[in-house]
Design goal:
With 314 residues, the protein is α/β, with parallel strands linked by helices. It is built from twelve helices and eight strands. It has one domain: Aldolase class I (TIM Barrel, Alpha-Beta Barrel), CATH 3.20.20.
């Protein structure tokens, strides 16, 4: 996690912005005349680059959600990759929200998101995805995690494993108490123990954090505080801030004593901030619309930074 931690310390801002474009989040002028998935994908890329250009100097990272791009087929996948590459060119850490989970050769192939194309004699490996970290589903156990850990260590990249997610129905599985466990522990707490174990051999001596992070929602502050104690060497990706109801006050227990250890995500609250402006002008051109999106996103991102800083100070 050293690359991420360095980026957070450089910007003084432990936040990540979700690049999750959908038609309803774009000014309608950007989609005027759209007839094909490629047209929509091009609009997404213009939208993304406007947001990145507005924020790259005040945030450490972006988090594109691949589902939004996969919905457009090959044109969307190409835009996902171009977005990642552009974000990296602006010095941003790219945390790709892909939530992969499988075993054996399939998991190893999914891990190519980090380590590049398959190893073939006489051919170099290509980083086709341009990602610094990915999200992973632990439901299949260590068989599904090990290939990602191996890939992360080999490339000095990271993974974030789902532990306690921000959605309301997460309790249906993640809050279940494991029968016979002493002390009584929930599924999420059991996963926390596994994450510390899976990352143990990858811990950085300077920062104390491993290449294996955890996804812990801001919408569950009490459980999140407990999970922080259970995972002292595990960096948190914290979704649920803003549009999902999480607030700065919910975050304090997710950070460590040095004010590190967590990266707080906001997606709609930043890229959709333009829709909440007190007065939305009539856009004469696409450029006018993108400029308004950019200004609104920057204002919202700075407010988020201040809110998080206050939470850490507490």
């Amino acid at each position: 996690m050293r690359v991420l931690i360095n980026a957070i310390q450089r910007t003084g801002n432990p936040s990540v912005i979700g690049l999750d474009p959908r038609p309803e989040l774009l000014p309608s002028i950007l989609l005027e005349g759209a007839q094909t998935p490629r047209d929509v994908a091009d609009a997404y890329f213009a939208f993304n680059t406007a947001v990145i250009d507005a924020l790259y100097d005040i945030i450490p990272a972006v988090k594109p959600q691949i589902a939004m791009y996969e919905a457009l087929g090959i044109a969307g996948i190409e835009t996902f990759i171009k977005t990642n590459e552009y974000a990296q060119s602006r010095g941003l850490y790219v945390l790709a929200d892909i939530k992969r989970g499988d075993i054996g050769s399939t998991a190893a192939s999914y891990a190519s998101h980090l380590c590049g194309t398959p190893q073939i004699e006489g051919m170099p490996r290509f980083d086709v995805w341009h990602e610094d970290a990915v999200t992973v589903n632990p439901y299949l156990g260590s068989d599904g995690i090990a290939p990602f850990v191996t890939a992360a260590v080999a490339t000095n990249k990271d993974i974030f494993v789902l532990a306690k997610t921000s959605n309301p129905s997460s309790s249906e599985l993640q809050d279940l108490v494991i029968d016979g466990s002493i002390p009584h522990e929930t599924v999420a707490e059991h996963v926390a123990g596994l994450l510390e174990e899976w990352g143990e051999s990858t811990r950085d001596k300077e920062t104390g954090y491993s290449h294996v992070g955890a996804v812990v929602g801001a919408t569950h502050p009490v459980e999140g505080t407990k999970l922080r104690k259970l995972m002292p060497h595990t960096f948190f990706l914290v979704p649920g801030y803003g549009a999902q109801g999480g607030t700065g006050a919910d975050l304090a227990g997710l950070f460590d004593s040095n004010g590190l250890g967590a990266l707080v995500n906001s997606s709609r609250g930043i890229i959709g901030a333009w829709k909440k402006a007190a007065e939305i002008p009539e856009f004469a051109t696409r450029e006018d619309a993108l400029a308004f999106v950019a200004r609104s996103a920057r204002k919202a991102a700075l407010a988020m930074k201040d809110d998080i800083s206050q939470a850490i100070a507490q």
